[in-house]
Specification:
The chain is of the alpha/beta class and 301 residues long. Helices cover 40% and strands 18% of the residues. It has helices at residues 3-10, 21-26, 35-57, 74-82, 98-110, 150-160, 177-188, 192-197, 227-236, 254-257, 260-276; strands at 64-68, 90-95, 117-121, 135-141, 161-172, 204-205, 211-212, 240-246, 284-290. Strand 1 (64-68), helix 4 (74-82) and strand 2 form a beta-alpha-beta unit. Helix 3 (35-57) packs across helix 4.
Length: 301
């Protein structure tokens, strides 16, 4: 990728939904925006970045962070900017996509202040180029649910984390109250509900209206967990839960935005959820684990 091509990608654009450099780096698909989806994304990203920021600021030098499933480098670049582009902090990212890693490295090499960011094509469940005790904080955003052996992966990450370091995980819950209700309603409408819900999401659906996830590399959602299952998996890997943030009830849909009363009702539901904080309502969760427990591992079964 030439400097001219990079400038064309990160230069000014007309779409006001993607106004910032960081968002431009993070722009991975052309799905149209929606109100609840935007709120969910901002809440998740702010939580992840706040926790990673705090972990780095409280750590002694030399400091280092790892983003697993780094894609185009969005979390890494935003966190580096938050940290004042401090070149003494080492930022690493790994991803299965060669093209996305190439983009991230090109950006880091050509944009001033990001030379401390490095990206590698690697499989978190395969060989990794990092020694034990390398990182103050590790992030997995929408990654764990794609792995065949999530507990083994958490144990590996625990070893790669410095004592007292953090592992931040954001992941959808396997089942919630409203997901169960949605599946019942979808069956009763012979797939009609999901066909409407997925408008604008560029998601392929089968004859029953069920989403067919296509990934460029790796697996579909094969290891989704509920919050209690995720907490248990972390404990088996020698991790302690430090913080839990519940995400929104709904991840959002363009179809919601087209129906004012439906959207108003869902936003009211979200407001109630923010007060009650019921884990069984949350579409997804963000959990910060701390690597201060025993390093042993109970085998996955």
């Amino acid at each position: 990728m030439s400097p001219t091509e990079l400038q064309e990608i990160i230069g000014p654009i007309d779409d006001i939904r993607q106004p910032t450099l960081e968002n431009r780096v993070a722009f991975q698909w052309a799905a149209s925006g929606n109100v609840l989806g935007y709120q969910h994304g901002v809440h998740r990203d702010r939580t992840v970045l706040d926790w990673m920021d705090r972990a780095l600021r409280s750590a002694p030098a030399p400091r280092a962070a790892l983003d697993v499933g780094s894609a185009f480098g969005n979390y890494t670049f935003m966190l580096n900017a938050r940290m004042g582009r401090d070149q003494s902090i080492a930022f690493e990212g790994i991803d299965l996509s060669e093209s996305q890693v190439h983009f991230a490295n090109t950006f880091a090499q050509q944009v001033p202040g990001y030379g401390n960011c490095r990206f590698t094509v690697a499989d978190i469940e395969g060989e990794l180029p990092f020694e034990d005790g390398s990182f103050d904080v590790i992030n997995l955003s929408d990654v764990l649910e794609h792995l065949e052996h999530p507990v083994d992966t958490l144990a590996r990450l625990r070893r790669m984390t410095k004592p007292g370091g953090s592992i931040v995980i954001s992941t959808p819950q396997r089942t919630t109250l409203f997901k169960r209700l949605a599946h019942l309603a979808n069956r009763s409408t012979r797939g009609g509900l999901f066909r409407r819900y997925y408008i604008g999401k560029q998601t392929e659906l089968d004859d029953d209206g069920q989403p067919v996830m296509e990934v460029d590399a790796g697996h579909d959602h094969i290891s989704e967990m509920n919050l209690d299952e995720l907490v248990a998996a972390g404990r088996r890997a020698g991790l302690r839960v430090a913080e839990v943030e519940l995400m929104s009830v709904m991840s959002g849909s363009e179809w919601f935005d087209e129906h004012a009363f439906l959207l108003a009702g869902l936003m009211t539901l979200e407001a109630v959820h923010r007060v009650l904080k019921r884990p069984s309502w949350a579409h997804a969760v963000v959990v910060r684990f701390v690597a201060d427990g025993p390093a042993g591992l109970s085998p996955e079964g």
